[in-house]
User: What shape does this take?
Amino acid sequence: MSITEIEKTKSDLIHWIETMSDIDVLSFLDVLKAQEENEDWWDNLSTREQHEINEGIKQADNGQTVSSQEFWRRVKNG
Assistant: This one.
């Protein structure tokens, strides 16, 4: 895409947003904008949280999982 095409696309998008009234689309665009502006959520986790997530991934990779049905049975039965 050329610089001219990029500028035209941006202009078209700005016009489209300015005339939009669909709150769902506007909310989605707002969330998308916020994600672009923010750091990666992973970087905001503590070292402990990152470690726990990585451990969970390792367990899943090694087949150390239970079905949701089994999970809820265990929760219900204590």
Notes: The chain has a mean pLDDT of 90. The radius of gyration is 22 Å. Residues 3-77 form one domain. The helical segments are 3-19, 23-37, 47-61, 68-77.
